[in-house]
Amino acid sequence: MDPLAHLLDGPRARGAFTLRVVMRPPWGIRLLDGSSLTLIVVTSGRVWVDPGDGGTEAREGDVVLMRGPDPYTLTDARNRPPSITVLPGQRCFADDGTEVHVSLHHGIGTWGNDPDGPDTLIVGAYEDDSEVGRLALAALPRLAVLPGDRVDPALVSLLSREITSARVAQSGLNDRLLDCLLVMAVRAWIEDTPDHAPSWLNARHDPVVARALELIHEQPAEPWTLAGLARVCAVSRSTLADRFQRAVGTPPMTYLRTWRLTVAGDLLTARPDLGLEAVAARVGYGSAFAFSAAFKQHTGLSPSLYRSPAAS
Question: What is the pTM assigned to this prediction?
């Protein structure tokens, strides 16, 4: 499997927050909702997106990826002070403390200060990082703005229509459309900025390293050794170790351990039905005890604490 496919295998929205936002200048929104990742499509007008470093402008058609959970602002112009604050649970307050969610509601899936405003956005928020996959989150910058031609406008149009409909299974369809749009956007960002992509993605250009990565990614439960990987890749141990180190920036066995524990983190939060023994077996650990010790060393938390909602 292409290493990029592993990166993009994570998005699995479950009841994600999706909304059509319609605003008339002057306007400004401070986002403190704590979402792990927010995808924004500017469908008309423009928006200034600022994660706290001055930000950048996105124009009609552009797609914005904002990695959380830190706050950021959306405004109609640079340095515009926000007048509305969005808190966890999508609770919205004006500067005077008045709750404004209802007053800014304009029909199904539509929210803003003017239903006929010139600045319109499609907003989709993944509230839990297990929905996106920690591997994808770790690969993304805090803020990325992609030109509109990097995603399919038909998909954007369909998502926009579904958000404002009241048809059966609307929420589930919105989730799947949002996932597809996110995968397109992440893929485009990686293709457009290869120098900023994770080193192991660019390592796919070395066939030996690409094969080793494929084996590790697809079979983390296998009892891999350097010799075993080298044998399947049809090279010597020293050749694999050298080429892997140069391409990925870390030794094969170190990478294997990190990958296993990354997969385990997603399993712990996305599959609460799996016990620790089952999780350990899926990522190549012989016992829950050995897995727990390695996981705590890697994350600073025991698997049980990591899985608890308070750790999210």
Answer: 0.76
